Amino acid sequence: MLFALRYNRRMFTSTAAFLRYFEGVNRRAMRDIAALPPEADGWTPQTGEGEKAWSINKLIGHMAGSRLYFASAYSGNGWISPAPPDVSSRDKWLAALESSHAEFHARLENAPDSWLDRRIDMIDSDATLPGWRLLLMMMEHDIHHRSQIDTYAGMNGWDVPQIYNRSAETIGALQSAQRAKYNQPGPAHQL
C-alpha cells in the first residue's frame, strides 16, 4: 500500500513505493522542461531577489542538486549540498535532471524501509522529522520549482504541458455528459 490511512503514520510504506511514485514526478519534470522553447535558455524574471530572480537554467540546476541534498540527509550523511550540475545551456537540462534522478534512486534503492520512521536532525533547528517526511519535502520541493518554471512559461506565452493530458476546458466540456450519466440535475459548471 502506497499511503497509510492515519496522519500520524508514515505516508509511504516502503522505500520502493516512494521511488516508484517519484519516478512519475521526475517524468513530469522532464516532460515540462523538454517542452520549453529555445528562448527559455537564460530567461530570468525582470524583478525579484534570491530564488525569485533565478534564471530557468539555475532553477533546473537547483532541482537537480536539491534531490541529492535531500538524499544525503535521508542517508544520515548530513544536509550536504552537492556541486551544482552544468545547466548552462538548454541542451544540458534534461541530462542534469535525469542524472540526478538516477543518482537519487541509486542512493535510496537499498535503504531499509525502517529508515522511513527514523528521525533525522534538521539543518536549521533542534527539531527532527521522520524519514518519510523528508522524502515528501524533497518531492514537494521538486514540484514547487517545476511549477515555478511552468508559471514562467505561461507568463511568456510558451506552451505548458497539461499535468495529466487534460485541460480544465476539456473537463468542463464533459460536465453535461457526466451530470446526465450520474443523474445529477442542474447546469454544468466549468472548473
Question: Notable features of this structure?
Answer:
191 residues, mainly alpha, Four Helix Bundle (Hemerythrin (Met), subunit A), two-stranded antiparallel ribbon, 6 helices, 2 strands, 3% strand, disordered N terminus
Précis, in short:
The chain has 191 residues and is mostly helical. It has helices at residues 15-34, 56-74, 93-108, 131-155, 168-173, 175-181, and strands at 119-121, 128-130.
What features would you describe in this structure?
The protein has 2 domains: 15-160, Four Helix Bundle (Hemerythrin (Met), subunit A) (Up-down Bundle); 167-191, no CATH class. It contains 6 helices and 2 strands; from the N terminus they run H-H-H-E-E-H-H-H. The relative contact order is 0.16. The model is unreliable at 1-6 (pLDDT under 50). It is globular. Strands 1-2 form a two-stranded antiparallel ribbon. Helix 1 (15-34) runs antiparallel to helix 3, helix 1 (15-34) packs parallel to helix 4 and helix 2 (56-74) packs parallel to helix 3. With 191 residues, it is mainly α.
